UniProtKB/TrEMBL annotation:
The lineage of its organism: Bacteria, Pseudomonadati, Pseudomonadota, Gammaproteobacteria, Vibrionales. DNA polymerase III contains a core (composed of alpha, epsilon and theta chains) that associates with a tau subunit. This core dimerizes to form the POLIII' complex. PolIII' associates with the gamma complex (composed of gamma, delta, delta', psi and chi chains) and with the beta chain to form the complete DNA polymerase III complex. InterPro entries: DnaQ (IPR006054), Ribonucl_H (IPR013520), RNaseH-like_sf (IPR012337), RNaseH_sf (IPR036397). It is an enzyme of class 2 (transferase). Residues 6-173 form the Exonuclease domain. Keywords: Exonuclease, Hydrolase, Nuclease. This is DNA-directed DNA polymerase. It comes from Vibrio ziniensis. DNA polymerase III is a complex, multichain enzyme responsible for most of the replicative synthesis in bacteria. The epsilon subunit contain the editing function and is a proofreading 3'-5' exonuclease. One of its GO terms (biological process) is DNA replication proofreading. Its EC number is 2.7.7.7. It catalyses: DNA(n) + a 2'-deoxyribonucleoside 5'-triphosphate = DNA(n+1) + diphosphate.
Length: 204
């Protein structure tokens, strides 16, 4: 059974909220975890073929000038498809990143066989007393080392990976050795009040 600590953690920066409305990816960042260690990373800006709004420039720090020199989405996503291979995938607010991953890969007739888990949904259940479950807030709340850079893809992927490993460690303190990827998915769908019960059951 695949382990929760051997995954690809990814993050997209995009021109907007929905590929269905014509939005495209402008940066992908990812780290590959094997047995809880970062063994590889991927980062690339990509040119969506049109100018991005000043809001997105300010929010991400990614300017139209930077994108003008970047390779096309198709070229970058082909490389990224090779990078993720058949690994399971993690993202913070995974439904957002999955939408863009699916849309961008569909354009180049590529797909992936791994499954997604959402660190945001897992955190809502395992870190219920955090003031907010935004990535930056959770990183501060759990005292996770960071360089203060947010809304750039690789930095966010690295933060998400550290948060993910911290949550695995929290589960291991509960007496569950090497939690599976499937257990993390189950936690993400479990009612908050039932989580301790689930963990107690998983221990046996």
């Amino acid at each position: 059974m695949p382990q929760a600590n051997s995954v690809v953690v990814l993050d997209f920066e995009t021109t907007g909220l929905s590929p269905n409305l014509g939005d495209r990816a402008i940066e992908i960042g990812a780290v590959k975890l094997v047995d809880g260690e970062i063994v590889d990373s991927f980062q690339q800006l990509m040119n969506p073929g049109f100018r991005v709004s000043s809001f997105i420039e300010n929010y991400t720090g990614i300017t139209n000038n930077m994108l003008r020199m970047a390779p096309s989405c198709d070229e970058v996503m082909a490389s990224f498809s090779d990078f993720i291979s058949d690994e399971n995938l993690i993202a913070h607010n995974a439904s957002f990143d999955k939408r863009f991953l699916d849309a961008e890969l569909e354009r180049i007739n590529r797909s992936y066989s791994g499954e997604f888990a959402c660190s945001l949904l897992v955190a809502r259940r395992l870190i219920q007393d955090a003031p907010s479950h935004k990535l930056g807030e959770l990183v501060r709340y759990k005292n996770i080392e960071n360089n203060g850079v947010f809304h750039r893809a690789l930095a966010d992927a690295q933060m998400t990976a550290r948060l993910w490993l911290q949550m695995i460690a929290d589960i291991e303190h509960f007496g569950i050795i090497k939690p599976s990827f499937e257990l993390m998915q189950t936690i993400s769908k479990t009612a908050k009040g039932q989580v301790n019960q689930l963990l107690a059951k998983s221990r046996g």
